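question for whoever is on the cluster today: can someone run the full assembly for these? two chains, 720 residues total. i dont have access anymore since they changed the login thing
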Amino acid sequence: FKDDFSTSPHLFTPMSPYDLELPIQASSQLSQSKELHTDFSSVDLSFLPDVTQDNKEQNLSEDGQETQKELDGSLPSKEDSGVFMGESSLSHPGAAQPSPEAPGVCPPLTPMTPITPATSASESSGIVPQLQNIVSTVNLACKLDLKNIALHARNAEYNPKRFAAVIMRIREPRTTALIFSSGKMVCTGAKSEEQSRLAARKYARVVQKLGFPAKFLDFKIQNMVGSCDVRFPIRLEGLVLTHQQFSSYEPELFPGLVYRMVKPRIVLLIFVSGKVVLTGAKDRSEIYEAFENIYPILRGFKKPS
Amino acid sequence: MAARGRCPECGSASLVEDAHYAQQQLVCAACGCVLSEGLLTTTYTDEEHLREVAYSQSTGQKEQLSRCLQRGIRRVQDLCKVLKLPAAFEETAVSYFQRALELPAFHLVSLEKKELLGGCCVLVTCRQRRWPLTMGTVCSLLYAKQELFASVFLSLQRELGLSVPALSLADLVTTHLSSFRLLQPSANIPAPFLEDKEQLVARTMAIVELASDTWLVTGRHPVPVVTAAAFLAWQSLRPGPRLSCPLARFCRLAGVELPPPAQLRLKELLEILLAMASQLSWLRAFRLDKRTVVKHVGDLLQHRLFLLKRAFSQQDGLEQQDTGLGDSPAQGPPSSPAVPQQQGCPSAGQQQQRGTLRPLLPPCLLQPRKRLRAAAPSAAGAAVTGDEPISDSEIEQYLRSPEEIRAFRKAKAWS
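^ ran it for u. tokens below:
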């Protein structure tokens, strides 16, 4: 889990090349309504320093925050995308990204302000957790014949003796879905909320094409997993002593410390190398907030005792 | 009813079953002698037919301990006896067990888990009273699977809301070493291998502290660290005859298991010691390697604090002042703060020139494993709105063609 912003300018600098997302706090409850974006596919908005106009308009749904931007590697390459196939939009269905891509999760510059009111640079960590996995559920609202689906779909596996659902995979966004005969579906593996929604819609479309009257009801993000690196080793024994009511550190069982934060209700896995995994969030802002809460605590354990 | 034998008094065969005040009696019809009375039925069916008051209601069975609970409590008590724990521990463990078993989370689990629950209660009690009991010991006593034990332990902690302090390494050292057989004379132990317990414990403690200062303990299983430290301590107390004894043989002689990570811990400890040794002026003359450094462990431990500061570069570039332990000024200035390198540093052998120093970091940071997966998704992925139109062709690539379906049907015989 690389920290992408180790070499990038400080997050508060408006010169970030990354486009912005604004997970406005009020929107976190309303994940149902989705407003369609105006299409910005040909416009490069990377020069915009701050909250863009369309973001202000889309103040309901958190998903519809991002604008499209140039896809052809004009962004400084930070990470090697490696195994990940090009996540190009549908206008370039087959094009693989030529250069290593920048991290897909845009650093939300402005969410720092609602969470940490003090704007002094030394107080914020300057590190943004990256989302690694999103789990969502949706109701297709029709009974499904799983054997039929497994027979007619290439990307499906179905072993009723092992598990009572069809496991279906699509390449883009690279995700996996569990489809149950009741019509409920679980979609995992996406790296952002929008990707999860798009993937779920694609699965629903596949089911539709297989002849079932599938709908797309009650799409809900159930869990989000993020990770980041604080770049210094952490004394886990010390942390478990001072934060005993929240931490569980059993080196005989697991090398990391399990920190159950109360507000927001997030579970963090903290390792001696400084890597932190955050999970249990229903909303992206919870992950960011949790990390901002834990960072000053971890800094306290930076130096060897 | 049918006569069952003869009356002992008059020999008559006419026996009658009668009820006297609702008490069954077998009476001889001829002489009136009572053969037997008050036959309490012992068969369950009889009781049922008579509709007597139910056993559980009449005897307050609900207030009594269930058989399962009794068995569990006995198990906990046996465990405490085997581990030779003080009596107070037993009471606490039993009370935890009783509380836990009432909770729905543990009431309906398998018997195997209930046994493990008993072991977990003992473990929690020991941890709270700072008695160094390892999970490995409890698991081996209960013949338990480590994963299952782990899950029961964690859920017990959560359900009862117990605060379980961490295992104290210092206590673990004392307990672990007391089980070593090298401390008493015995037939199969050569004389030079015998060691005094106090000295061994003291030196092992010092090495364990050194290990925890240098990030060798955090996140790792404690027992292999203690084993490796004990081995080093034992070797260093009398290096002459003992240097040639490998770790495996040492564990066999001591009568303890050799945990697999102990070899790695030993290697790491030796690296640390070598780095420290390079900072001691009177040792610099020797070209120490992993074997010979053991002879000087005593010195190194004595000046441990100073050497740690000198031998390793500081994370944030802070340089400690040279407090001078006979170091000649001709050595030159200490390595500059700009030097500390986060990546893998050259080995200790090169530190004779006081060049680049290894930073004091956990081994997982010094030797990062090759990353199997890239962390970041593409930039374009972020541009996804979730509401893009989905092309038919894209979906159709996931559907089987009719020929494929026919072939599959033939091959797999879908019913």
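summary bc i know u wont read the tokens: Residues 1-37, 52-121 of chain A have pLDDT under 50 and may be disordered. Residues 193-209 of chain A form the longest helix (17 residues).
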